[in-house]
Amino acid sequence: MPSQSIRRFAYLAYVLVGCAIAWGIYATTRPADEVALTLDEPYEQVRQQSRSTLPAADPEMFWGGFVTRPARLRFTDPRYGFVTPSAKFLYVGTNKYGKVESITLSPQIETLSLDDTMAVLTDLQNQLRRGGWRLIRVASNPAITDTPAMRASIRSRTDPITYWLADNKYQIILDVRRFINESRSNDERYLITLRLSGPPLMTDSPGS
């Protein structure tokens, strides 16, 4: 009898190890979640064409949805499209007709080091430029570039912000903020926020 118990225990152990290995393989090979959309698409259509945890719309009271598992944003406009890194915080806002009118996200799954922050910001802004987005209000809000002066500005918590337009269709507000942990004042961590919406659009006033 003891030998049978030992064999059963060994069998269960092998099963558990096998399940753990299988789950590890699945977790590392499963495609990353992705929210694929452009503005003015029906929210439910976005849910169907995306691989994400966006919740179903509540017809009684619904103004958008948050993902509950990190997902990247793929903005699918054929000319002005771009892709972000995975975001732990990603919100799709809708209008009263159930169509997408805005997206707000932080394209990261945790607060980032300054080096990683600059890499993400540089890539996003390069994608926007290649896609034909135009940086506006440059005099007061220049591009967030990876220079010693800009890094010093970000470290000093000036919270740089940039404004981008895509013809008369879309606008993006992109900014970065520093977080300081009082118990670890030398631990620099940063949060990027990207807000995408449509008209009415910002204006590019002379000298702004």
TrEMBL record:
The keyword Transmembrane applies. It comes from the Bacteria. Keywords: Cell projection, Cilium, Flagellum, Membrane, Transmembrane, Transmembrane helix. The chain crosses the membrane at residues 9-26. This is Flagellar biosynthesis sigma factor.
